[in-house]
Every structure is written in C-alpha cells, then in structure tokens.
Recover the amino acids of this structure.
C-alpha cells in the first residue's frame, strides 16, 4: 500500500506497508507532527489487501442469549468466532461464504440476524446450522445462541 498518491497541499510523506496478508483487515490512524507538536489522531480507516479483485469485510458476531455459548466458522476459512466475540475477515467480491453455527454442549442455536440477510439457511448433513451469503459489499451477520 503506497500513500504517496494521497498528498495534502504538497506535503509528502509516503508509507509502504509490506508483508500484509491477503484478506486480512488492517486498520490505520495517522497524526501529523509540526513545529507546534503533534495533531489529534485522524479517523480510523481500514483496508483489506487482495490479489486480483475487490475484497469486502464480513463481520460475524457470535451472540449468546441467557449466557449461551457457541462458535461460528466459515468456508472458505477466515471466520472462527466464539461468543461473545465479533470477527472480521476480507473475502473477494462474489465469494459464496458458508457460515456454520456450532452451539456449545447444552446450548441451542437460535438463528441468524444482522444487517445483511443470508442467501439461504438450513441444516447440513452433519446437523449443523448454516448461512450461505454472497459477498457483494461490507456485510454483517449475527449468529444467536440460547443457553440452557
């Protein structure tokens, strides 16, 4: 990532961030240093490097009701989230991601929610609940678990 193209008023300070992992979100905050000191931090921005296409961030929250616990994994790999966490991963546009909800022993899977609907949901051959979602933008899904 090269910031040399994002110059303000002829001030130039570039930064090349190397060694990044494709599909992993990186978050940045910058400050400026001048004769009177350091500026306040900028708003946070994020970037997800990818090879050969546009990548969007999938946010998955594993949410436990009544002290429930469970986990959510994805295929392709990238999401591996336990209650009460929120996990982020970058997927290429058009990727169909299967999220699988796995309630802890004596807990139950309650359902899928969030700002983006699943393309389809159901129970797979192993008895696990799934949500298939096609990545088209930054997206957010919640897996809700219910305790005993």
């Amino acid at each position: 990532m090269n910031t040399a193209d994002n110059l303000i008023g002829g001030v130039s300070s570039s930064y090349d961030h190397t060694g990044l992992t494709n599909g992993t979100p990186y978050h940045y905050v910058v400050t400026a240093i001048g004769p009177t000191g350091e500026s306040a931090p900028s708003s946070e921005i994020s970037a997800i490097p990818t090879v050969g296409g546009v990548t969007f961030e999938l946010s998955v929250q594993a949410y436990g009701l009544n002290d429930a616990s469970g986990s959510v994994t994805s295929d392709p790999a990238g999401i591996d989230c336990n209650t009460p966490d929120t996990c982020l991963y970058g997927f290429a546009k058009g990727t169909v991601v299967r999220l699988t909800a796995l309630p802890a022993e004596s807990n139950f899977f309650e359902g899928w929610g969030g700002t983006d609907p699943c393309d389809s949901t159901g129970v797979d051959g192993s008895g696990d609940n799934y949500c298939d979602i096609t990545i088209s933008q930054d997206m957010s899904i919640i897996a809700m678990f219910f305790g005993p």
Summary: The mean pLDDT is 84. The first strand starts at residue 26 and ends at 28. The CA atoms of residues 32 and 128 lie 50 Å apart. The radius of gyration is 19 Å.
